[in-house]
Design brief:
- By secondary structure, the chain is an alpha/beta fold.
- It has one domain: Chitobiase, domain 2, CATH 3.30.379.
- It contains five helices and eleven strands; from the N terminus they run αβαβαβαβββββαβββ.
- The chain has helices at residues 11-15, 31-48, 58-61, 81-85, 135-138; strands spanning 20-24, 54-57, 70-74, 92-95, 98-101, 104-106, 111-119, 122-132, 151-155, 159-160, 167-168.
- Strands 2-1-3-8-7-9 form a six-stranded mixed β-sheet.
- The longest helix is centred in the N-terminal third of the chain and has 18 residues, at 31-48.
- The termini are far apart.
Length: 171
């Protein structure tokens, strides 16, 4: 494939496609987390969808030709069957409660990652992945500023406010 025609990022380029497929995960032992995340993806979909957008469960996405779509994929690699299928081409790993992204390891439980890659079914289209160590942590991920870059890593938390001098919480 000619490198000039392949999707080259950034995140906004993947989401600017008028035909978008929004894919939510279905596989998690924590059924509450998966249901909350499905509801969240549905809300985001309804806010940003275009006329040609579709909302799919990961199991349906696996059986669907998505080569003409920009993809918005939510979930962890293990909870989203679509991501699991293509995990070998992604530089994202979850191991021992750590996010491994390329050569970097993130240990904070609040780490979130938004990144883009070419759509694995058509390298001319883009795919945006919204992920974290836990599906519960993905809820609200669209509030993180993202778009003009290829990836965003966010670690968030709250201060210890037990007195007038706020401090970082210790683990």
């Amino acid at each position: 494939m000619n490198a000039w025609t392949q999707f080259a990022g950034p995140i906004n380029a993947a989401s600017s496609n008028t035909k978008q497929a929004w894919i939510y995960p279905t596989f998690d032992k924590d059924t509450n987390a998966i249901n909350f995340l499905k509801d969240y993806v549905n809300k985001v979909y309804n806010r940003f969808k275009s006329e040609e957008s579709i909302l799919l469960a990961d199991s349906v996405a696996l059986k669907t030709d998505l080569s003409n779509f920009g993809l918005m994929v939510y979930g962890t690699i293990s909870s989203n069957l679509f991501l699991a299928k293509y995990s070998s081409i992604l530089p994202i790993r979850f191991q021992d409660n750590h996010l491994i992204f390329g050569a970097n390891t993130y240990k904070d439980e609040n780490t979130k990652l938004i990144t883009c890659f070419p759509n694995p079914q058509n390298n001319d289209k883009g795919m945006v992945i919204y992920t974290a160590l836990d599906n519960k942590k993905i809820i609200g991920i669209n509030n993180i500023f993202h778009g003009p870059e290829d990836y965003v890593i966010s670690i968030s938390g709250n201060y210890d406010k037990s007195d007038t001098n706020w401090r970082l919480k210790t683990k």
